[in-house]
Amino acid sequence: MLLEIDTTSATPIYTQIRDQMILGIAQGDLKVAESLPSVRQLADELGVNMMTISKAYTVLKKEGYLLTDRRKGTQVAPYPKKTDSFAREYQQQLALLTAEAAIHGLTPEEMVKDVVNLFTEFRKDESV
Amino acid sequence: MNIVIWILIGTYFLLALILRIPGNPHKNIILENTLPKDKLDEPKVTALRKAYKNNLLKIAGALSVLTLPLLFVSYDSIVMASFSLLLVVSIGALYGCEIFYIHKMRQLLIEQDWLLQVAPVLVDTKLTVEKNKKLVPVAWLIGSLLIAGAVLAFSFFQFGSSTISWTLLGTFVLLWGVFAAGYYATTRIPVRALTDDQETNRQYNNLTKHAWSFMMVMLSYLFIPTLLIPFVTLVKSAWLSSVLMVGFLLLLLAGSLFTFYLTFRLRKKQDVLLEETTSYRYNGEDQYWKYGMYINPDDSRLMVPDRLGMNLSINLGKRSGKIISVITLVSVLVILIGTTFPLFLFDFGENQLHYTLTDDQVTLNAPLTKASSIPFVEMESVELLEDLPNTRIRINGMATDDYLTGIFKVENKRAVLYVDRSSKPILKITTQDEDYYYTNKDEAETQQLYQALQNDLGKSH
């Protein structure tokens, strides 16, 4: 997949990597068991400290999106199961997003339509 | 010494020609500034490039005119001191010219509103994982390590644990280390998407990786002949050893030229690749190159590919980069001063080639050369020569137009020289293992020593 990192953005680099990798997995740009660059390689690529990349990978591993294999390095994990901590985080994020949508005048129907569209985009690989 | 002056003048023009390269567009960069692709041929840009390149040649020309009077100076010490000084001045002047024009180009971009938007860094994860696929195998580097190791083992076998063996070992560790580090730095060069087209990026990266790793491996083999130089002194025939020495030098020269050829070819191939694409991504690096070298404290890499596509550059924003640069600079200065200083002693010191006679031996001295004490009982003969034998090779000493001091091989025999070439006759002392050649600056003194030795030799034999 293509990561597009803006080193001047206010969003921390590790958050940019995390978010884009999750989107990549959902969109099928990153396949299950696909190898990812090592921490050093990615740090060299972006010209940033290895700690930054390590932080992004640690978060992604903790959330179940990535796996580290001693021989094969870092890989995309099989789709993780829904855990309690994910359910909590999901509820929080959804509440926040819905609140913003409501404030900006979106109707529940409009929001559901957007969600359905995104789902078809994300799950297009699964339906094949 | 005239040759030194011509080398210096050659160096000015060589430096000017090298510094002209950033004046040509590569990766849409001219004079360390990235331009929009459609502005590369704008008349104002062309005019600035032309002025820069002409001025470099003018500076080289002016420096040459300043240097020519040195042809009429007969003191080696003054010539060498001026050489060092002019070398520093020329680097400063030519480099200053480059910085001046980098800033002028920047101003032009600002005036014309041609500054590019910084594109976010694009990383292709697949390409990054496979970025070192086209590297020359690291096993090739191990090959040179083994060969050089064998040469070193032979050296310790031949010369024992002597200065020669240890110097060879030091040279080897330093040189091989540099090339191994270069190879490692090549593995870490980022893919850095230059365009939006991933295939172009992949090919661009493969070209860099292959060419650079190949160069490092090739250079690691090329320096092995320099390790063989001390063995040349063991060759009996002076003719053969001269041929071998010239051969080694030619090999080194050919290797350096071939490296240049490889880098030029790489640059050309990459330019062709980039010409075909329209989506060049500017990553905002211009600000780190405004002094013609890479200064970026936020980049963790020590070595980065330079923007000419021909070299690796040290990141001077990093502490280790600064330390390495300062050490290199100081070493060069020490070498320049260290080679010039003894020449001043010879030219302006008082009777530097002196001798001390005692009851049973004579001691010969020259500046920065180990003194030789020769007991009379070891002397086989003492004679006066009108000329030095022509078949001589310098092993560890100094040979200028005016002086020959240190250890040489003269007519296939080890010899220690303390000779002022303008002074005749030359005193030759023969012992079983080595010969000694000596002149005093004052010819009468040489004669006097010869007489004294003749008398003492008569007594002791």
Automatic annotation (TrEMBL), chain A:
GO molecular function, one term: DNA-binding transcription factor activity
Signal peptide segment: none
Top-rank taxon: Bacteria
Keyword vocabulary terms for this entry: DNA-binding, Transcription, Transcription regulation
Domain HTH gntR-type: 11-79
A Pfam family annotated for this UniProt entry: GntR
UniProt-recorded name of the protein: DNA-binding transcriptional regulator YhcF, GntR family
Taxonomic source organism: Pisciglobus halotolerans
TrEMBL record, chain B:
InterPro entries membership: Bacterial_PH-related
KW Membrane (keyword) present: yes
All copies of domain Bacterial Pleckstrin homology, residue ranges: 354-442
Keyword entries, A-Z: Membrane, Transmembrane, Transmembrane helix
Entry's transmembrane regions: 6-23, 56-75, 81-102, 135-157, 163-185, 211-232, 238-264, 323-346
Pfam families attached to this UniProt entry: bPH_5
Protein name: Uncharacterized membrane protein
The organism of origin for this protein: Pisciglobus halotolerans
